[in-house]
Structures are given as C-alpha cells and as structure tokens.
Write a structure and sequence with these properties.
Family (chain A): Belongs to the ferredoxin--NADP reductase type 1 family.
Number of helices of chain B: 4
Shape of chain A: globular
Strand content of chain B: 15-25%
Helix content of chain A: 25-40%
CATH topology of the largest domain in chain A: FAD/NAD(P)-binding domain
Shape of chain B: globular
CATH architecture of the largest domain in chain A: 3-Layer(bba) Sandwich
Bound molecules: flavin-adenine dinucleotide, FE2/S2 (inorganic) cluster
EC number (chain A): 1.18.1.6
Oligomer: heterodimer
Domain FAD/NAD(P)-binding (chain A): 18-174
Strand content of chain A: 15-25%
Helix content of chain B: 25-40%
Number of strands of chain B: 5
Mean pLDDT of chain B: 80
Low-confidence stretches of chain B: 1-34, 147-151
Number of strands of chain A: 19
Largest interface: A-B, 37 and 33 residues
Strand order of the largest sheet of chain B: 2-1-5
Distance between the termini of chain B: 43 Å
GO cellular component, one term (chain A): mitochondrion
Binding site for NADP(+) (chain A): 163-166, 207-208, 219, 374
Distance between the termini of chain A: 13 Å
Structural class of chain B: alpha+beta
Order of helices and strands of chain B: HEEHEHHEE
Radius of gyration of chain A: 24 Å
Chain lengths: 460, 151
C-alpha cells in the first residue's frame, strides 16, 4: 500500500535525476544504500531478473548459514527508503536492452553478478552425474532454473573438483545429518533426496597444495566439527610444510595451516562415520564411465615457483584413478555479457572497468566487475567504492545535466511487452507466503521455486 | 565436541536476540535514556578519514549495540548483526586497551577477523566486545570499508 503511493509520488517529482541498478544482489543493494545516502534528489531503481530480491544471499549462501543472511535486514531497509524502488521480474538483455536503459536513466550501474559456471573442458564432462556445483547450490537453495536437477545420490563416493568455499558448502550439505538440514530453509525436494542419500565419502580435489587451498578457515573448522563425519587427509600432502615455512606465513594463512596440521595429526578413521577427504596436487584429466561416471582420472601435480601464495601447479606424467559415481565441478562462477556493446573480457568473465567505470554514465560492481571471488564484505567494499566514484563523476561527466524519464520510460516499454513487474509489496507477499509454508514443517521458510507461482502470489 | 557446537549456537542465538531487541529499542528510545540504570561510559570511534564520533555506551552492551543504538554512521557495520559471520564490525584498538579487554578472541572470532581488511595485531570484532567500566574513554579506530575500487 505504502509502496504504491510512493511509486506514484515519484512520477510527480519528475525533476529528479535517475539511477538504475541492474541486479538486486549485495552489490546492487550496497551501492543503492551509499548512493541514496549521498546523492540528493535522485531516484534509484533496482531492477532484477527474478521476481525476488537478494541474489546469492538467497540463492548461494548455504541454508545452514542463516546468520549470514541477516544482511537481508539491511537490504530491506534500503529498499524501503523513499527514493529507492525495487522492480523484480525484469531481465536486462531480454525484456529491456542496455541502450534503452541508458536512454531512460542518467546513470546505469550493472550488478547482475556471475550466474554461469566455468566448465572443466575434459573428456567425460557430459556423462550422467557430472554436475556443476552451481546447479547443486541452486537446487538445494530453490533457484527456479535448478528445481528439476537430475542428481543421483544413490552412490557411495563423490568427488568435488575445486577447493573454494562453494565446494566446501556443497560437501557439507551432502554430509550433514538430515536432522540438522531439516531445520533450515533447504528446499523440500532436495532434503528428501539427501535424506535417502547413500553417500559415504566426499573428496575435495585441488590442483595445488594445502597452503594454497582457497577455502577459508571458518568453513574448514565447520567441516572438522561436523557431526558423524571425519576429515581424512593424505599425510603425504603435508610433507613439505615445516615449521620454518609456517612461521613466515601471514596470520590468516598461518592459522589455517596450523589448523590443518593439527587435524592431520589427530586424524582417525572411524568405521561408522562419513568421510570428508581433501586431496591436494591433483588436476582432473578424464572422467570415465559408460553412461554414468564411475571413475575420475587425475594427473599428479608439482608446484613451481618460490613465493608460496603464487606457486603454480604443473602436471607430471604420473596419474591416479579414483572411484566415484558423482563428480561435482566447482571451479568457479562466471559472468556473461547481456549486450554486444559491453567490453566483456571472456577469459576473466567480467565486464572491463576502471574502478567500476565502463563508459560515461555506465558502471559495474560486484562479481560482474571483480570476478566471482570474495565474501559479502568484499562485495560491499567494492560497491561502496564504485558508488563513491560515481558520485565524483556526476559533476565531472555532467551526468545529471540531461533530463531523463527514468522508470516511466522503462514502464512504457514493459507494458507493451506485457511484462508483470513485481514491486517491494509483491516481494513482501511472497516472503510472507514462504515463511507460512515453512512453519507447517518446522522450517524457517519453504521457498517458492516456480516463477509462475511467485507471480501469482505477488499479484494476489 | 558436540557440546562445543551446542554452546556456540546458544551463544550466537543469544547475541542475535539481543541485537534485535536493541534494534527495536533504538527506534523508540531517545538517545542516551538510561535503561535499567545501567552505567554509561564514553566511547569515541575514529573513522579512516580522521573524523571522530563521540558517543556513550552502556556497561554490558557490545560495541555493535553501541553503534546500532546510537545510530552511529558507520556504513556497512554489523552486517550479520553480531552472529560472527561477517567481520564488518572490525575495529582496531590501542595496544594498551587491547591487552585489558574483558575477553580474549575465540577461535571463531579470529577466523572471521582473518577475512577483514587492514587486519592488525590489535584488531577485534566489535560485536564481541562487551563494555566494562574500565573501558571508559575508549577510542577505537574503524578501518576503511571502501577499498578495492578506490585503491
Ligand atoms: C554458493 C555460494 C555461497 C556463498 N556463501 C557466502 C557466505 O557464506 N558468506 C559470504 O560472505 N559470502 C558468500 N558468498 C559470496 C556472496 O554471495 C557474493 O559475494 C555476493 O553475492 C556477490 O554479490 P553480487 O551482487 O555481485 O552478485 P549476486 O549476488 O549474484 O547478485 C546478482 C543479481 O543480479 C540478478 N541478475 C542476473 N542477471 C540479470 C539480468 N540480466 N537482469 C537483471 N538482473 C539480473 C540475479 O538474479 C541476482 O539477483 C557465496 C557465494 C556463493 C556462490
Ligand atoms: S557483526 Fe558480523 S561479525 Fe560482528
């Protein structure tokens, strides 16, 4: 109700300048927060492909990490500011083009994230039960495009390729006792599948050594403490890590190295428990199987270079075969270009930019501009920084000198295409509905995974 | 081990509850109104650009509570609302104060600190620092949050 009035008001106050932010994830919300605070008399519209906001906070962050999602409260406050609007169910590149947006808005900030995944590019990647981690994350978190994921958990061993926090998240969700998972907002269909899982062992395979592993210490500590699961290391992987090396590491690396070494020393193989097994110095070269994967061939690597943090892996002739009936590739997310005019760096998978600036009046921030690395803090810091640069450019580049129609221009073309726009009130209805559905089964929320249903609820 | 995990969850829950209740309180209560006759002490936040924000905090509150309850303008501070999962509440203490802080950092706090920008030997997470009387006059440095794009 309140929101509807607000929208109409913004039609009246048309003398404003207009900023459009594309993508309602952390980068979009944090940039909006900073701009709303610092730039006077400006309307900020956040448009989002899905009918629902929050990007990877909703669809990436693991269901058993609800505390991380508290940022949603801050984002909600931003969305409710008088000069900020959320418009969901609008996809840049499909429903509206970049050229059109730039005609309607004085400034366009692209924060549409990285929603593709890198492929392994090795033989056998097409085999059944070889699945990108991104899809598994989407499946357990209720991302509409992954709701029908085909995954067979009637298997004993899985190999995850990659050692970032996403890889650890997936390993943890697959190994966590079901009693723990059912208290989270994990989707009911994935919960059911995981409850019948026969999985006993999950490998976490990395190209380089323990000192170069990408996971952070908090995620590792969680694995070490996981109920009914033991972490089994290959002692040999730690052969060259002596005290002399550890003492010289910067504090974060030193602490995680010490934690790993402690765990290596204390490790025991309990009969009953499930096994989490990090494996280092291995690159996948071949996935084997008839229809379904049953083995993974790994090349043995050695490290080259002096500096520990930048040591590169180099394959030797030696190979290792491991039996596994599920292979999960977790070697990174990747952005894509929504418009041919964008200077897109295919190799890095980002839009080329200088401190966020792409062109006069066109900016990017978050994973789309930095690459898919770092935590919400990293994204926040980048978004504040890019927003600050925009503020400096406004007078320099005369960004507010032309009057532009803003949302009314956008709305006109969306109307023509019959596109339903979900505003904040619409999201609040979906939010309420999900929480109510969750209550029925003792979960904090049961996500709606069908876009059609989301729209029905939003417009009910 | 299981007990440890349990304790951790309980702790996190309490913290969460506390922050939320104060969050509501901050909306209705005028600044500095004495609640439960708790004693207040002086605190100064020193921002990266050198500006100083002087405020008061109640004994028993965390430094995150102080920021939230007094609407201190520290952008992005306390994103996870005191649940030890974000490190946006990173603060740097003078050495002599750091040494007398009422609690030492837990492994979990150090884990989060390891992700913070400008980590120093006297860094702590503000949501984990509970005010005591001997912290009266405390001056803490707030590291810059605007990093990447500016450097
Ligand atoms: C599996 C996983 C787990 C994570 N866990 C944690 C964690 O525990 N703690 C932590 O601090 N960080 C975590 N992160 C990192 C964190 O999620 C990112 O730092 C952050 O979400 C990046 O924000 P962003 O806004 O750049 O991108 P995103 O969050 O991806 O937001 C992009 C938004 O743009 C929308 N969009 C995409 N295409 C279009 C289009 N064409 N038009 C309009 N909108 C579009 C998307 O739907 C999305 O809402 C995790 C990341 C992943 C992948
Ligand atoms: S508020 Fe997130 S760690 Fe302190």
């Amino acid at each position: 109700m309140f929101k509807a009035v607000k929208t109409q008001l913004s039609y009246v106050k048309r003398a404003l300048s207009n900023i459009c932010i594309v993508g309602a994830g952390p980068a979009g919300f944090y940039a909006a927060q900073h701009l709303a605070k610092k730039v006077q008399e400006t309307q900020i519209d956040i448009i989002e492909k899905l009918p629902v906001p929050f990007g990877l906070v909703r669809y990436g962050v693991a269901p058993d990490h609800p505390e991380v999602k508290n940022v949603i409260n801050t984002f909600t406050k931003t969305a409710q500011l008088p000069n900020v609007n959320f418009y969901g169910n609008i996809e840049l590149g499909k429903d509206v083009s970049l050229q059109e947006l730039r005609q309607f808005y004085n400034i366009v900030l692209l924060t549409y994230g990285a929603d593709k995944n890198r492929s392994l590019n090795i033989p056998g990647e097409h085999l059944t039960n070889v699945i990108p981690a991104r899809q598994i994350v989407g499946w357990y978190n209720g991302l509409p495009e992954n709701k029908n994921l085909k995954i067979n958990l009637d298997v004993e061993t899985a190999a995850i390729i990659g050692q970032g926090n996403v890889a650890v998240d997936v390993a943890r969700i697959l190994l966590t006792p079901i009693e723990e998972l059912q208290k989270t907002d994990i989707t009911h269909f994935s919960l059911e599948r995981i409850s019948q899982s026969k999985l006993k062992k999950v490998y976490l395979i990395g190209r380089r050594g323990p000192l170069q592993a990408a996971y952070t210490i908090k995620e590792l500590r969680e694995m070490l403490k996981l109920k009914d699961c033991v972490t089994v290391w290959r002692t040999k992987d730690f052969d060259n890590i002596g005290n002399d090396i550890i003492e010289k590491l910067p504090r974060p690396k030193k602490r995680i190295a010490e934690l790993m070494l402690k765990s290596v020393k204390e490790q025991e193989n309990l009969e009953q428990a499930k096994v989490f097994s990090p494996v280092f110095f291995r690159s996948p070269v071949n996935i084997l199987g008839e229809n379904c994967v049953n083995q993974l061939e790994l090349a043995v690597n050695v490290l080259k270079g002096e500096d520990i943090s930048s040591q590169a892996s180099s394959m030797t002739e030696e190979k290792e075969l491991i039996d596994c009936e599920l292979v999960i590739s977790s070697i990174g997310y990747k952005s894509h270009s929504v418009d041919l005019s964008l200077p897109f760096d295919d190799k890095k998978g980002i839009i080329q930019n200088t401190k966020g600036k792409v062109d006069v009046g066109l900016y990017t921030s978050g994973w789309l501009g930095t690459g898919p690395v770092g935590v919400i803090l990293t994204t926040m810091s980048n978004a504040f920084g890019v927003a600050e640069n925009i503020i400096e450019d406004i007078p320099k580049d005369n960004l507010f000198n032309t009057e532009k129609p803003g949302f009314s221009g956008l709305n006109a073309i969306l109307k023509e295409k019959n596109i339903q726009i979900v505003d904040w009130t619409g999201w609040e209805k979906i939010d309420k509905y999900e929480i109510a559905q969750g209550e029925k089964t003792g979960k904090p929320r049961e996500k709606v995974v069908d876009i059609k249903v989301m729209l029905e609820i939003a417009f009910s | 081990m299981a007990l440890n995990v349990l304790r951790q969850t309980v702790k996190v829950k309490n913290l969460l509850f506390k922050t939320i209740s104060f969050r509501y309180a901050s909306g209705v209560q005028p600044l500095g109104q004495p609640e439960l006759n708790k004693k207040e002490i002086d605190i100064t936040f020193v921002k990266a650009n050198g500006s100083r924000i002087k405020t008061k905090g109640k004994i028993g509150d965390s430094l995150l509570d102080v920021v939230v309850n007094n609407n201190i303008d520290l952008e992005g501070f306390g994103a996870c609302e005191g649940t030890l999962t974000c490190s946006t509440c990173h603060l740097i203490f003078p050495k002599e104060i750091f040494d007398i802080l009422p609690s030492k950092a837990s492994d979990e706090e150090l884990d989060m600190l390891d992700l913070a920008y400008e980590l120093s030997d006297t860094s702590r997470l503000g949501c984990q620092i509970i005010l005591t009387e001997n912290l009266d006059g405390l001056e803490v440095t707030v590291p810059a949050t605007i990093n990447d794009a500016r450097s």
